């Protein structure tokens, strides 16, 4: 799930024509001597901070007026913070804003690292993590600083995120402890279908709209190109292409239902195993698999294998959470050998009779990806908040995304968006170097500002110079992403009864979907899903559904849908 989430979120970043920005997402690059693996020098005992106050008085802190030093911990096995000050953007922030950040890294075992820090009461000043379990654990232990008194004083977060998003982030005590990353008030995401355009033309450019069209097209591909994968489902073991196919069989049935293991029915959340849309989609997927119209290593292949097929043009149609990631690079690679080759995104498939404008291949939510927490270890929590608020504002967003002014951008227009330079347009190597370096320093991404900057600029370019991703984001992917804000924070704490049930249901879901894919016929698919329903109910699925329904109804009230 984490790899999927990283792909989804990085897709929101301003992508270069070469799409090299994406390569930094899962990086485990080494840090210099400023990076510490959680040594005591980089943490402050919570006990020593008892006298700290969450505010420093009524006077507003001006970033750059005095030095600000704090420690930062990214709570992910895969995350290693780049050395602060080693790239042009953070060096400028270090010099001009007097901010110095020392990394506390997980060492590849984030869960153990956090448990150790909590037990010893030695926490970093800032923790960057997923919403949910760990946030509530730290809050319940009294280890987090509330942001409420800072929101009006430092207005960027409140301005760009809005009250609706902030209210969804509030904890059970009514206070706000989470600073969101890549939050948004407009659609975002890259989930959908990617098509090999040369194969499509060679097969006569047939109509590709319905699931029947897709099935017939894949059969034609198999007959003409025996060494090509007709349908590539990406990392199907994580959902990916199978989730996308699900959306084709029901209006307003987003893949988020699969991830949450629920389906809304009236005012309740009900079983995914008995969902007619899910059952039909698995019958379709199983048929593709057994007729060898789908990659036969769908459940075992690695991302590198998917990329290799993309870069060599060895699939006809692909579906996944972010196929733009390899579609853009693959398009460039294929065109090097043949200018008529390449990839294009296509409008989502739908079952005959359904409204194509109510098919959602992916989802987004207002809260975005993860959150930054300021702990009570911090000596200057208000100053840290002021920095995070600046980072999510217009100036901070420009600097951390495109580097300091004077290289890739010079000044802003009347709406506050950057004016990109000739260097940005023509010097791909330098542009990529600057932007790649800060992907893992974008902790408080402002999706709306970044995306509007990107799209406004793209519209000024001739078609041949427009960014591949931006073209399809604006015309297809953003238009086909479902607002799933109502489904956030439904999961119970793992050490509760419902949390234990959740783990069992997740295992039953994953195992049954794999078995259904390998089923010999449609009847066996349904039999497998019926057994999964029975097994899930035996471990308490009905109690989990009731728990999630209550959480869902609370969400609806918070966002004003009830």
TrEMBL record:
Alphabetized SUPFAM superfamilies for the sequence: Periplasmic binding protein-like II (SSF53850)
Signal peptide: 1-23
Keyword Signal: yes
Classification of source organism: Bacteria, Bacillati, Bacillota, Bacilli, Bacillales
Keyword check for Ribosomal protein: no
Keyword terms: Signal
Region Disordered: start-end pairs: 26-61
Ranges of compositional bias, category Basic and acidic residues: 45-61
PROSITE patterns named among the record's database cross-references: PROKAR_LIPOPROTEIN
Compositionally skewed regions (Polar residues) per UniProt: 26-44
Protein's UniProt name: Extracellular solute-binding protein
């Amino acid at each position: 799930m984490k790899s999927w989430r990283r792909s989804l979120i990085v897709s929101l970043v301003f992508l270069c024509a070469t799409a090299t920005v994406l390569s930094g997402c899962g990086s485990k690059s080494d840090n210099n001597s400023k990076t510490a693996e959680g040594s005591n020098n980089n943490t402050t005992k919570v006990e020593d901070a008892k006298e700290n106050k969450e505010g420093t008085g009524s006077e507003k802190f001006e970033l750059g007026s005095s030095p600000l030093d704090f420690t930062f911990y990214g709570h992910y096995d895969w995350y290693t913070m780049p050395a602060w000050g080693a790239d042009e953007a953070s060096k400028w922030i270090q010099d001009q804003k007097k901010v110095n950040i020392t990394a506390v890294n997980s060492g590849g075992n984030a869960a153990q690292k956090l448990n150790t820090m909590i037990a010893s009461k030695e926490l970093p000043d800032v923790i960057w993590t997923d919403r949910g379990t760990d946030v509530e654990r730290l809050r319940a232990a009294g280890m987090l600083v509330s942001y409420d008194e800072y929101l009006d004083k430092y207005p960027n977060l409140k301005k760009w995120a809005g009250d609706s998003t902030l209210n969804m982030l509030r904890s059970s005590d009514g206070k706000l402890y989470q600073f969101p990353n890549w939050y948004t008030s407009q659609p975002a995401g890259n989930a959908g279908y990617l098509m090999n355009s040369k194969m499509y033309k060679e097969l006569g450019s047939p109509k590709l709209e319905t699931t029947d069209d897709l099935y017939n097209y894949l059969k034609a591909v198999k007959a003409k190109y025996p060494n090509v994968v007709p349908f590539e489902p990406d990392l199907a073991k994580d959902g990916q292409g199978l989730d996308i196919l699900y959306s084709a069989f029901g209006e307003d049935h987003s893949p988020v239902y699969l991830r949450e293991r629920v389906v809304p029915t009236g005012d309740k959340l009900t079983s995914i195993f008995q969902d007619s849309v899910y059952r039909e989609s698995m019958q379709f997927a199983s048929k593709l698999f057994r007729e060898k119209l789908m990659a036969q290593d769908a459940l075992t292949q690695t991302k590198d294998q998917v990329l290799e097929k993309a870069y060599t043009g060895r699939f006809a149609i692909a579906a996944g959470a972010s196929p733009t990631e390899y579609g853009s690079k693959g398009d460039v690679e294929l065109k090097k050998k043949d200018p008529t080759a390449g990839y294009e995104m296509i409008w989502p498939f739908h079952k005959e009779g359904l409204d194509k404008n109510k098919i959602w291949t992916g989802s987004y939510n207002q809260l975005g990806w993860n959150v930054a927490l300021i702990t009570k270890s911090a000596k200057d929590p208000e100053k840290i908040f002021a920095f995070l608020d600046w980072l999510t504002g217009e100036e901070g967003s420009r600097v951390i995304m495109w580097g300091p002014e004077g290289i890739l951008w010079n000044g802003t227009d009347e709406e506050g968006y950057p004016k990109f330079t000739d260097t940005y347009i023509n010097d791909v190597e330098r542009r990529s170097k600057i932007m790649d370096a800060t992907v893992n320093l974008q902790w408080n991404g402002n999706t709306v500002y970044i995306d509007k900057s990107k799209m406004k600029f793209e519209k000024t370019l001739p078609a041949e110079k427009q960014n591949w991703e931006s073209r399809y984001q604006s015309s297809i992917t953003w238009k086909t992403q479902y607002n799933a804000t109502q489904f956030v924070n439904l999961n119970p704490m793992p050490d509760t009864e419902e949390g234990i049930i959740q783990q069992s249901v997740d295992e039953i879901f994953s195992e049954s979907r794999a078995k259904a894919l390998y089923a010999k016929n449609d009847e066996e698919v349904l039999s497998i899903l019926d057994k999964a329903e029975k097994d899930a109910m035996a471990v308490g699925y009905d109690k989990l559904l009731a728990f999630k329904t209550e959480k869902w109804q609370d969400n609806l009230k918070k966002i004003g849908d009830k």
